[in-house]
Structures are given as structure tokens and as C-alpha cells.
Amino acid sequence: MTSTNTPVLKIEGLTRRFGGLVAVNEMGLTVHAGEIVGLLGPNGSGKTTAINLISGVLRPDAGSVMLGDTDIAGWPTFKIARLGVARTFQLVRVLDGMTCGDNVRAGLSFNHREGGGSVEDLLARVGLAGHSDRPASELTYIDRKRLELARALALRPRVLLLDEWLAGLNPSELLIGIALIRSLKDEGLSILMVEHVMDAIRSLCSRCVVMSSGRRIADGPTDAVLNDPAVIEAYLGAPQHA
Ligand SMILES: Nc1ncnc2c1ncn2[C@@H]1O[C@H](COP(=O)(O)OP(=O)(O)OP(=O)(O)O)[C@@H](O)[C@H]1O
């Protein structure tokens, strides 16, 4: 499916301070229906804080977060999830004491929208078909990531927020992970992904937004953004992930 010009998510003037530090500073970005937007920037530039503000984990000090026609800025997490904003976490979060199926059921319990799909369908969609009764604690790292993704998909998201979902995967797993994310886009999902893996960004993201010190310093087609001197300088001037 191709992207349209309909904004699914539109952020304007988003600001969050921690004491004297402005972690997110009048940030703006738009995700259109059916596109993958990359949210890039050096370590500490405010990407995860931005995701936390969109998903309700943190309350903004200022700004709007429009999901369709609704400003969800400052809403509690569960309400935002019910409206169809799903996310994964930088440090993968699954419920280890439960089976894979129950992890997905936990996601489905938040789905107040029509047609989230069955537990088996959701597990199959991420490559975990037949694992419903398996304890989550037995899963490998990539399978834990898949399970977290299945739980997010159970919300039948209008927008999916991925916070470094590909981090920590080995080269062959990375190819699988990229193909999985591409399959979600092909289903028409709208995705905002924080990512440092450049191959993934190049192959998945039609557009990228770059943050530096809380501010947006670039926003445009991926190739143009990655060749922008201000972006190159922001990356070279700061320590990077391995
Ligand atoms: N709860 C908090 N309290 C105080 N400062 C915070 C808090 N969360 C984030 N920060 C600070 O806000 C800034 C932005 O952090 P954030 O985690 O959003 O960056 P990031 O771009 O996601 O970095 P990384 O790529 O390393 O994950 C950093 O200086 C960080 O130390």
C-alpha cells in the first residue's frame, strides 16, 4: 500500500523539560497514513522522550499530539493505547511469567477498536505461529522482540511507535527484522521508528526527522536528510551506539 497525504499523527510545538534540561524542544513531525518515518539523532537528543510524550508515558509541558482529529497530548497511557497508539520499548518488555498467548491477550484486552485479530493470527504475523502455549521466558532475544511486537499489534494500531526495535539483532536477524517491519508497512500500517541501524533506515523509511539537543534539525526524504551537512555534523559531533 502506498502512503497518502492524510496525517495519522501530527506533533507540533512538543516540549518537555527535566529541571533545567529541555529534552524535547518545540518538536514537530508528521506521520502520514501508510508510511514509515524514521526518528533519528545522536544519543541523548530526545528521541525516546518524544516517543514517551506521544504514548503518554510522559506528559508534555507544551505542544499538541494530534491523532487524526484528536489532541491526545497529556492523556493517560491506557487511553492513548485504546485509541490506537501502540509501541515497543528500547529495552524489550514482555511478561516473562506468562505464555506467549497470554502476552498477546494482555494486548488484546486494551483493544477497544474493531478487529484486532486472534492470538494465533497475531503470533503468526510476527513469525511465532504455534508458540501460543510456550512460556515467554523461554524465548530467544529476537523472539521476545517479535512477541512484544505482536502485543503492540493486538491494539490494531493507527500508528505504531518502534523504539530501536532492531537494536541488538545479529546481521541475519536484522534482515528478518527489516523484512518483518516492511511486511507491516505493506499491510498499510503507519510507523514512527527510532532507529540507529542505517541499512534499516535506508531500506524502510520514506522520510526521516532528525533531532539534536531536543530540537528538530532536519525533516524530509531519507536520502536528502542523510546527506544533509547539519545531520552529518550532529552525528559526528556526538558519541554513537556501537
Ligand atoms: N526521566 C528523566 N529525567 C531526567 N532527564 C531525562 C529523563 N529522561 C531523559 N532525560 C534526559 O533527556 C535527554 C534526552 O534523552 P532521551 O532518552 O530522550 O534521548 P535519546 O535520543 O532517546 O537517546 P538514546 O539514543 O541514547 O536512546 C537526555 O539528556 C537524558 O539524559
Automatic annotation (TrEMBL):
Keywords: ATP-binding, Nucleotide-binding, Transport. InterPro entries: AAA+_ATPase, ABC_AA/LPS_Transport, ABC_transporter-like_ATP-bd, BCA_ABC_TP_C, P-loop_NTPase. Gene3D superfamilies: P-loop containing nucleotide triphosphate hydrolases (3.40.50.300). Residues 9-238 form the ABC transporter domain. GO terms for molecular function: ATP binding. SMART domains: AAA (SM00382). PANTHER family: AMINO ACID ABC TRANSPORTER ATP-BINDING PROTEIN, CONSERVED COMPONENT OF ABC TRANSPORTER FOR NATURAL AMINO ACIDS-RELATED. Involved in beta-(1-->2)glucan export. Transmembrane domains (TMD) form a pore in the inner membrane and the ATP-binding domain (NBD) is responsible for energy generation. This is ABC transporter ATP-binding protein.
